[in-house]
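Can you please make up a whole protein chain along with its backbone structure tokens because I've never seen that pairing?
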Amino acid sequence: MPDTEKFFKNFGQRAKQFRKARGYSQEDMISFGFSARHWQQIEAGRPITVTTLLRICEAFHVSITAVVTGLDKGIYRKPQTADPRGRNA
């Protein structure tokens, strides 16, 4: 099962990197249709919708691939397996 909290934390850091690389403040993201609070939540790792992902890609003129590539590293937890005696390993 994937650790979605970790994925969205990674996503938030990536969004912050894109924003800073372009010299934008969080308040500047208002001009792209985000409220300052919503943008703060994105960077803090709050889960987003696909629509928001597409809006971010549009704001930065980047592909979805550029935004999400590599964010899944380390997010998959090993499934717990039961041992023959019925206990979790």
